[in-house]
Amino acid sequence: MIQDNAYNMGFALTPLHPDSVILGGGFEKTYLDTLDFGQGVASPVWHIAQWHSKFNLQHAKLMTASDGSVYYVNEGGSLKVALYPDNSLLLEVNADKEYDSARISGQDWPHLLIEQKFVENSPNVGAASQLLFSMEVKLEKAENKMTEGTFISSLHTAQTPFYFILQNANEESPDYNQKIWFGIPSYDYRFTEMNNQETVSWDIGTNTYIYNVPQRPVWGDISFQDKKWHGTEIDLKPFIIRSLLAMREKDVFLDTTLDDLTITGMNFGWEVPGTFDVAIRVKNISLLFVRKTE
């Protein structure tokens, strides 16, 4: 379901603020630039979001590193995107260039996210015998730049969630167009061990619930802080079934069946609501839809 997981067609670059997309009539009308890594492709299926950064990747010059990677850096040096010869993608946020002081409650934070919509062929959950998800990630850098005594765990972190959008696509359903963020957590500065607990939270920015699966069944007993490659191959359908039950406890998807649910898109990358300099590499992102047999 995820196209171009070698990033050969590059990325369409969003504005700095989500409101600009809404006011400008949608993503297609508001893209600022194409980051094509010198491959000259003008029709990317991916876009890359630089929400709430102080600095813009627009018109960034393509650079080449000694390790063979090619990369873009914004004018302030706070965001970097690099493509490596093994088709892995580096996402780097240097938040010490974004914050003048420790973030306070209600203050926006920089994001660097890769996103893709499943517009023409959104997989139907009920029609799938399996939804096989896989990816590999490697933490490259995680530096706490906060001064002593300013870190508050409820306000400050750097994390790399992976989200699918689960949406009711049945026009005859009372829940038509209801959706949630279905999350697969990976790195979070605050924690060194994988948890075994699901979480449900409310995203103020999109007025949407977030359901996060437990980490341990996805990643195993690992720690991203070892800065090695870690991968997962897992069937998401049992977790989606569980998320449906959890959402009903929040009065969401009360009249939704698995046959009503589709996966309409995904995003992955950094959210950095704290003064941290961080970088991660990702490769081989895949979602395989295995159709039920008659």
Low-confidence segments, given as residue ranges, are none
Number of helices: 4
**Mean pLDDT across every amino acid position:** 96
CATH architecture: Sandwich
- CATH class membership: Mainly Beta
> Which fold name fills CATH's third level, the topology?
Jelly Rolls
Q: Tell me the fraction of residues in β-strands, as a range.
A: 35-45%
Shape from CA axes?
Answer: globular
Domains, number: 1
What is the H/E string? EHHEEEEEEEEEEEEHEHEE
Q: Describe the biggest sheet?
A: 9 strands, mixed
**For the CA atoms, what is the radius of gyration?**
19 Å
Class based on secondary structure composition and strand pairing: mainly beta
Helix content: under 10%
Q: Strands across the major sheet, in which order? A: 2-1-3-8-15-10-11-13-12
Oligomeric organization of the protein chains: single chain
Number of strands: 16
